[in-house]
């Protein structure tokens, strides 16, 4: 049996043990498997209580089961959901019973979504939105992913693509029509008008876009400065504050390398360069390597110093904020005001941290700009939109060279949008995209 024809199953809920665990099955054998386990078929889409049993009639667990016959299901195939108690033993038993059925196998990461895509339930931009939604840490990331999942970009791209195809149909009709001479103006004029309008729309979406792609990854802020300036103390201060949303990646038991902050919905990763150092522990080495890579591409440097004399080491054109630490030690007269530091803080007591965090929120807001309405969230999407816009622009400049060339450029433009939606030529790409998904999704 071809792997795509097999019925797949996976744990679709979170880490065990948990109150409830959801095992999902998708494929033509999902119904038979459900019948075997539950001893009956529940009515479609109705939560039904059932005692699940193995092939010998031994009870496995008391469960709630759901039956979604295809094509009106999430994947477009027959889907069954088993809501069982979230114990490791229940899942282990259930999985061994399911694996013993020859038509069934465990799902690859993202395979449910991939099937939904292949069965036309969602387009590729929606699949990407789904992946982003699952991985969203902050509110703004969630909202952006949801827009994508609702298919806003996909709907636009579909409509653009249809209009390009219509425009090129007009031109191609004209080519056939005009054996000698040019395409008649009554065909060419509306085609040109439409192409110009489309080009403007696509360019607007690309421009209004800000840096929505970066909202997926977040901003990177590096803390640098001379030894003993208080960098590690500042990291600990940040990690202690309620804004820290993800448990910090601790490189060692002593120091943090990174903390991830949710600053008013903007994801911001702060990296301590003092935590970056040589180590023999392979796990720690990996953390250090990653931190170093990220620090090299920082969006902002906080240069920490104890006094005012130290000049920040500039790194390219990354903005540097001078932050004077240990203001608790300095007398009134010598505190941050009147010095050239932008901020005065005490990493130890937390004094001045409010103003620093507020400024970071402002920085993030400016950085991400108008992403609130951003539709393009990935490099892949941006590139394809740019390709399409370029081809449209070329089609307008090739008019004089002949209608055939113009029609060819329109085909290129439509093809790029087709790829954006996942309509054409994407097998290789699918592997890349769906590999990032969780198992059971
Ligand atoms: P790093 O080398 O830059 O990471 O500096 P550390 O965070 O290890 O701090 C060096 C020393 O300065 C430690 O003894 C800290 O307790 C102390 N320190 C850090 N921040 C402050 C502060 O705001 N006020 C005072 N009084 N001491 C601080």
Describe this entry's structure for a reader:
This protein is of the alpha/beta class and 441 residues long. It has helices spanning 30-38, 88-100, 111-118, 124-135, 139-149, 152-177, 185-207, 212-217, 231-240, 282-296, 353-368, 379-397, 403-421, 427-435; strands at 7-11, 18-26, 48-53, 59-68, 79-86, 104-106, 219-224, 244-250, 256-263, 266-272, 300-305, 320-324, 343-344. It has a seven-stranded mixed sheet, with helices on both faces. Strand 8 (244-250) and strand 9 (256-263) form a beta hairpin. Helix 4 packs antiparallel against helix 5 (139-149), helix 6 (152-177) packs antiparallel against helix 7 and helix 6 (152-177) runs antiparallel to helix 13 (403-421). The radius of gyration is 28 Å and the shape is flat. Residues 242-254 and 333-337 have low confidence and may be disordered. Bound molecules: guanosine-5'-diphosphate. Residues 227-233, 274, 325-326, 328-329, 346-348 line the site of guanosine-5'-diphosphate.
Report the strand count.
13
Termini gap:
23 Å
Taken in chain order, the helices and strands follow as EEHEEEHEHHHHHHEHEEEHEEEHHHH
Percentage of helical residues? 40-55%
Shape: flat
Radius of gyration: 28 Å
Which ligands are bound? guanosine-5'-diphosphate
* Structural class category: alpha/beta
Strand order of the largest sheet: 8-9-10-7-11-12-13
As a percent range, the share of strand residues is: 15-25%
Uncertain spans: 242-254, 333-337
The number of distinct helices, counting runs of at least 4 residues, comes to 14
The major β-sheet equals: 7 strands, mixed
Give the integer mean of the pLDDT values: 82
